[in-house]
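Need residues for this backbone.
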């Protein structure tokens, strides 16, 4: 769920920088001409997705994963499940229904000690990448080790790319992709459960401007 919202003037102002993108002009035209609330919200959602570069989803769609056929807790409402999105054709999303997510944000600040001052001078450089920790349990509904689900998680972890995901809080913070840094599956005393944890960092796409592309080809 992306919480970033744009006004109609902001979206129109983005048109020159976004260039020609099929559907963007149509969505803008609908925004300024429609009087139907449903059509307006649909056009606003479409235009915002194009402007952000990410798919958006409403809060309501994030509340019902307990009935997802991929869940080990079918029919049970789940709080803040994490879904790793498929990256290959015919591949299913990976639902981590019991995931517990925490995060921290390191900030890059240079502190300089100045002679004669009792405190340092702090210079803010930028905000760093979010560091995200995920832990949970993979369970089998049968009295056996959940080998298939463990292998599936391992396959997602090993992908050589940033992973798109759905998580209500993280996407509200503007985090849309994860790069997995480390992964751990400790020994488990239960035959039908496997604990797991992994650490990741937030990943943002690199924005290339037209002048950057021109200078690149001229070098």
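Answer:
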């Amino acid at each position: 769920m992306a919480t970033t919202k744009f006004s109609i003037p902001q979206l129109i102002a983005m048109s020159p920088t976004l260039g020609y993108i099929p559907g963007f002009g149509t969505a803008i035209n609908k925004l300024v001409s429609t009087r139907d609330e449903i059509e307006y919200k649909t056009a606003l959602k479409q235009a915002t997705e194009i402007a952000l570069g990410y798919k958006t989803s409403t809060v309501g769609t994030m509340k019902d994963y307990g009935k997802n056929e991929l869940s080990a807790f079918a029919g049970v409402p789940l709080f803040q499940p994490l879904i790793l999105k498929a990256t290959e054709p015919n591949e299913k999303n990976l639902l981590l229904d019991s995931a517990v997510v925490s995060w921290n944000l390191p900030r890059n600040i240079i502190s300089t000690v100045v002679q004669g001052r009792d405190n340092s001078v702090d210079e803010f450089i930028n905000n760093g990448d979010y560091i995200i920790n995920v832990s949970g349990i993979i369970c089998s509904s049968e009295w056996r080790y959940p080998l298939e689900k463990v292998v599936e998680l391992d396959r997602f972890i090993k992908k050589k790319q940033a992973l798109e995901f759905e998580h209500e809080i993280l996407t509200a913070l503007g985090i849309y992709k994860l790069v997995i840094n480390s992964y751990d599956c400790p020994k488990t005393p239960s035959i039908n459960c496997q604990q797991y944890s992994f650490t990741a960092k937030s990943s943002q796409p690199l924005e290339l401007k037209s002048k950057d592309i021109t200078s690149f080809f001229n070098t």
